[in-house]
Amino acid sequence: MVAEKSPNEETLLRGVLRLNGKILGLVLGILLGLAIFIGTNWLLIKETITPGEKHVVGPHLQLLSQFLLGYRVSFLGSIIGFFYGFALGTLCGTAIGWIYNMIVDLKSK
Amino acid sequence: MEHRPVVIIGAGPAGLTAAYILSKAGRKSIVLEKDQTVGGIARTVNYKDYHFDIGGHRFFTKVESVEKIWKEVLGQELLQRHRLSRIYYNKKFFYYPLRPLNALWGLGVWNSLLIFCSYVTSQLLPSKEERTFEQWVSNRFGKRLFETFFKTYTEKVWGIACDEISAEWAGQRVKGLSLMTALKNAILKDGNGRPNKSKVIKTLIDEFNYPKLGPGMMWNAMVDTILQNGSQVRLGRKVSGILWAGNKVEALEIQNNGQVELLHSSHVISSMPLREAIQKLKPEAPPEVLHAANDLKYRDFLTVALIIKGPSLFPDTWIYIHAPEVKVGRIQNFKNWSPFMVPDPNRTCLGLEYFCFEGDGLWTMPDSALIDLAKKELETLGLSNEKDVEDGTVVRMPKAYPIYDSTYRQSLDVVRRFLGRFDNFQPVGRNGMHKYNNQDHSMLTAMLSAENILGANHDLWTVNIEEDYIEEVRAKPDQETAASELIPGIFYRMDKFGLATAVGSVCGLLVFLATVWLVMKGGPAGAYLQLLNQYFFGYTVTLKGAFIGLAYSFFWGFLFGWLFAYLRNFFISYYIYRIKQEAELLTFRDFLDRF
């Protein structure tokens, strides 16, 4: 057979991807943190541009405070939400990476 | 011994480059050339002011030092030319790599359909055995395309049936771009920060430099510099003996007009065919070395240059003639290499190239018969009328290509081992090393040999002849190393079960914890979380519901994770497949160029 694969190529085609839990955690953390931060501020900006009758801004998002103590739909709340989201995302990403790598290791043994 | 000159055998690109480098370093040399002209197989012939090249020599290299010499020697005389070289088959031109519409138009719908079916069959049910060139190409392009485009041409060039050429040989010729390199090219920027790899590759293949009046201009200019620096170039000198003793070549026996002259040298750089060099050793080389040298074979070729009425016959620089009804293998259109090659704007000069063996029917045919044959074939191909051909001439080029047959490597190793004993003898160039070197690599071996004489310690045999014209994107070295380490990580397969379980577990746990939290704490959010039961039947914000939610979330998370990994692997595989196909197609074009 001619089409011999180089060792590098062989590794490339047979290798199994391993996740970097820290990076995955960081990425998910930033994404979730930003989602809460932007989601909160979006409601605040919308309210400023088109003020309606006096009512609670973002009543549904406000419910997050049930889980994220200290969070509210305000600018300060959006920063608090960012940190909560970042922490949760980091935790989830790291957990996904850790579980995934553990399974890959177990299967390769 | 150092006061003796360096003697260089052969005034082709390799021999002259060695002399050029030495002369610039102040070292005297004598170049011996058996013909009355310089340039070797890269010479330019001048026939009634029509210049033509033997085989077509593009000046394109990725060896910076060689490019520097070209620019140093010719400067502004080096033109930048666009390449167009198509396959000519069935009186139609085909681009290579094949373009779907062009192929469809040229081959007809029915034939194209059959080729497509044959290609699909070869992909689904490839021949398990890949022993021959025929099987190798058919497995990649389909049997029908092989028979249409590759069989005739390959057999014309090598004079051997495709099922007798080893697949190993084909693999060697096409291995220029590895998958890793192709992937690196695909994701890296080149040294100049150019991001588009396909553009880079295309440009490098499709453009080249060419001296205004052909490659001979380069060699003549080099000779001028060599002579100005006090070295000599002696034409019409045939080396008839290489005298050696112990681990040194002592002198060369030279024939000149029937007289024999002895030339002592400090070093010898030889670009004469390796077989001949061994045959000329005095005393004789050991029998096993002689036997191995005699096993090294060459393919010869001849060019019939025709001067034809008409300003332009076709736009290609050269065309590959795959048509089986004619013997011609390739046609060079010299005016398209450089407009200065043809003195009359209303004439065209074509070079019809015939591949043959020294002494066979074609080789021994009289020039007039060869010119008649070329005229007839040109008309058969529909490229010109016989009556439009005004003049013609023939140039025979022996030992144009070293043949890589099944035994050459073993024989070459024996010869190399024997030559390794000499301290002051260095074989260089294509025939000198029996290596399929292109012009630039031949020059590189010569440059290194000259540097060795000046004190360096290069191993000439490591000059990479497999570096192909399919240029790798030149990344910065640190970027290159990083890429080599990074690439496997990017393209590895993702474990579907692993990701599915990980995502499922995290999702399940999130819903479970959120539910338990609300059960313990209470509050208005519970009613909203309860809405999950629209999807998770039976879910409630209770302790029991937390477990139900965990199971549901795990299930959906698992499914999402699995699907994500599956799609990611699928698209990555497809990407790798495309990159590999593209690399193979591009290297295959280079494969045709190698002939």
Q: What is the radius of gyration of chain A?
A: 22 Å
CATH topology of the largest domain in chain B: FAD/NAD(P)-binding domain
Structural class of chain B: alpha/beta
Oligomeric form: heterodimer
The low-confidence runs of chain A, each spanning 5 or more residues with pLDDT under 50, are: none
Summed up, the helix count of chain B is 22
Q: Domains counted in the coordinates of chain B: how many?
A: 3
Indicate the topology.
The complex is a heterodimer of chains A (109) and B (595).
Chain A: H1 7-14, H2 21-49, H3 59-62, H4 75-108
Helix pairs in contact in A: 2-4
Chain B: E1 6-9, H1 13-24, E2 29-33, E3 44-47, E4 50-53, H2 64-74, E5 78-82, E6 85-89, E7 92-94, H3 100-107, H4 109-124, H5 133-141, H6 143-158, H7 167-174, H8 179-187, H9 197-206, E8 207-211, H10 216-228, E9 232-235, E10 238-245, E11 248-256, E12 259-264, E13 267-270, H11 274-279, E14 281-282, H12 287-294, E15 298-309, E16 318-321, E17 330-333, H13 334-337, E18 347-356, H14 361-364, H15 367-381, E19 389-402, H16 408-419, E20 425-427, H17 430-433, H18 439-453, H19 477-491, H20 496-521, H21 525-530, H22 543-593
Describe this structure in words.
The complex is a heterodimer of chains A (109) and B (595). By secondary structure, chain A is mainly alpha-helical. Chain A has helices at 7-14, 21-49, 59-62, 75-108. In chain A, α2 (21-49) runs antiparallel to α4. The longest helix of chain A is centred in the last third of the chain and has 34 residues, at 75-108. The radius of gyration of chain A is 22 Å and the shape is elongated. Chain A starts with 6 loop residues before the first helix and ends with a helix. Chain B is an alpha/beta fold and 595 residues long. Chain B folds into 3 domains: 6-83 and 208-296 and 404-462, 3-Layer(bba) Sandwich (FAD/NAD(P)-binding domain), CATH 3.50.50.60; 298-402, Polyamine Oxidase, Chain A, domain 2 (Alpha-Beta Complex); 496-581, no CATH class. Helices cover 47% and strands 19% of the residues of chain B. In chain B, a hairpin with a 2-residue loop joins β10 (238-245) and β11. In chain B, α5 packs antiparallel against α6. The longest helix of chain B has 51 residues, at 543-593.
